[in-house]
Amino acid sequence: MQGLKQQDLFDDTLLVCTADHGEQLGEHAMYQKMEMYESAVRVPAVIHLTDATSSVQNTPISHLDFVPTILDLLHIPCDRTFEGSSLAHTILEGTPPPIKPVFSVYNGNHAIGDIRRMIVHEGWKYVWDGMEAELFHLEKDPGESINLSGLDQYRQREQQLHRMLSTWARQSNDWIDYTRTWA
């Protein structure tokens, strides 16, 4: 950044710092990504633009939103459509991003064939690997220590999130069989 400032380019530069995943660092007795816990999938996104309003947002967003956002912020026209949506308004005005489902897929455990899909929506997280499900209420259980999947009082929420994940998977040409029941 110092070099950009020395060359008088800093005010004309969009800076984006993020990561593809967290490392867990011992949380849930794990290191690296390995699972869909927040310590692995919730990563920071720091975006600096001279004309932007400074703010901190905690609403989940997707990396799929980055390309349309960057194109908007840099006023680059593009005739392509993207799965993500622009967050330029959020960055420029400091307003919260729209609340929408955020999806993720992890297939790093090739030895056991474990491919997991996840949806985070309205304070809930649902994870499905085709055989087992996990359901967490992130606002009440941010450490994701109590799996609510299969409990009668949460069945309606679990079914809703399963349907949303299934719809997204079909639209993404995912191969997993979402017609199977989980409990």
Count of individual domains? 2
Strand fraction band? 15-25%
Mean of residue pLDDT? Answer: 81
Distance, first to last CA: 53 Å
Strand order in the sheet with the most strands: 3-4-5-6
Structural class: alpha+beta
Per the principal axes of the C-alpha atoms, what is the gross shape? Answer: elongated
* Number of alpha- plus pi-helical segments: 5
pLDDT < 50 stretches: none
Helix fraction, binned, reads: 10-25%
Largest sheet: 4 strands, antiparallel
Radius of gyration: 19 Å
Short key terms for the protein model shown above:
183 residues; alpha+beta; Arylsulfatase, C-terminal domain; 2 domains; four-stranded antiparallel sheet; two-stranded antiparallel ribbon; 19% strand
Describe the structure in your own words:
There is one protein chain. The protein has helices at residues 2-6, 38-41, 66-73, 88-93, 155-171, and strands spanning 15-18, 45-48, 102-109, 114-121, 124-128, 133-137. The protein is elongated. It has two domains: 1-99, no CATH class; 101-183, Arylsulfatase, C-terminal domain, CATH 3.30.1120.10. The protein has five helices and six strands; from the N terminus they run αβαβααββββα. The model has no long low-confidence stretch (mean pLDDT 81). The strands form two sheets. It has a four-stranded antiparallel sheet with strand order 3-4-5-6, with helices on one face. The chain has a two-stranded antiparallel ribbon with strand order 1-2. It has 183 residues and is of the alpha+beta class. Residues 2-76 form the Sulfatase N-terminal domain. Keywords: Hydrolase. This is Choline-sulfatase. Pfam families: Sulfatase.
